[in-house]
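Weekly puzzle thread! Below is a chain. First person to post its structure in token form gets bragging rights.
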Amino acid sequence: MNIWLLILWIIFSALYAYLKLKTSYWDLKGVPQLKTGLWGVVSRIRSLHHSDLWQEIYNEYKGKVKVAGTYWYTRPVAVILDLDLVKTVLIKDFNLFVDRFANHNKNDILSQHLFSADCKVWKGLRTKLTPTFTSGKMKFMFPSLVEVSQKYVQTLDAELEKNPEQCLEMYDWNGRFTTDVIGSCVFGVDCNSIRNPNAEFRTIGQKVFGSDKPIIKWRMLKTVYMKYLRYFGAKRFPDALEKFFLRIVNDTVLERERLNIHRNDFIDILIELKNQKDDKGQPLLSLELIAAQLFVFFVAGFETSSSNMSYGLYELAKNPDKQDILRQEILDVLQKHNNKLTYEAMMEMSYLDQVISETLRLYPALSFLQRICMEDYRVPDTDVLLEKGTFVTIPVKAIHYDPEIYENPTAFRPERFHPSEQQKRHPQAFLGFGDGPRNCIGLRFGRMQAKVGLIALLSKYRFSVSSKTLDKMEISKHSFVMVPAKGVWLKVEKL
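Winning reply:
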């Protein structure tokens, strides 16, 4: 036999044995696992959205075991299937599951944001930034949201006059609206995305959440192997994004300090933290940490709310009776407040709140929550030992679609979130904003943004299905977050 063929045979045999051993991890521990190829669930993501894989595991093992196993490449992933254990991981034993990612690249500036930072950085950031999202701060930002929503309606009016079919792709339009809201409330600038879909901020947002590029495998690879890839300069986010947000910090933060400008927005709060010192005389926030926080509040703020609005309009268009109920509530409350949208008026719209929650149940921004086991952990009432460093996943969408929790789970029924109905369910049956100390810090702002947008739209327009409306929403297979693969096309008629 040719010596080189023999060497290749030995190499491939060794690689096969290594991968076979790695993907037998859960079997060897006596934990049932999803049958996958040698690269774990990654090998199937091309044909399925990753949420479908979590659903497959949930359907197979829920009720039989508390924990099942799978793999990201060669990394074992524990999938939590019991709601009491979900509560334990997210709340009761939170200190043992603080981190979301196992390895961090300190040279990757944007990865130091609140969502992905490790426990040491996260704890300080969360404490410092929590006051940013109090109800008082929301009331202060509210007029800015209303002003942007008025510009939104004016621009839609002009667009409909030029569009005889009255059919619009609402995911893009809502993304432009929420981009301008974030620009106004977070950066204190007019992004002008509503009038100009090619505005710089809008373009940057689309680079992060674009649904037409197969990036999810690469991101999973970086998540699993960042410990090694960082030595080759790999980062979670491309240099173009890093340069943009560092430029924003230098152009905006430093300019405000130089001219002593105060606008009572998110950047002002970050500047205040930058200028405060800790016990060691160091700034509470560096310019790099400010850039990271601006990045996450921008990309998360515009995408989650625009998706929620778009999916909500899609379901309301397919369920006109629900749309009529919501519109009537909006009009009645506005009339009660002299046809002026105030923060107090918005808070009175209880059915609107239910619509947003039901939309998040059907289309959660994240189909799963991820945590890292910080030390060896014995799963309560089982023989399963999760080793330190194990990825722990909570299949949010699968829980939201469990027929034992939500009767006829694919149906759009906002009434499920009436307070009396919510009390009947397990506290962790709804995870639209996560839960526990590391839940979404901006949930108040996100809900407020979506509410103001829907109020502006539904008080002025009727939405219905068109020839371009999909019978079933298609979710992009190329994104970690649940974004529409082919947009959300709806017929829009002015009332």
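Puzzle host: Confirmed. Bonus trivia for everyone else. The mean pLDDT is 86.
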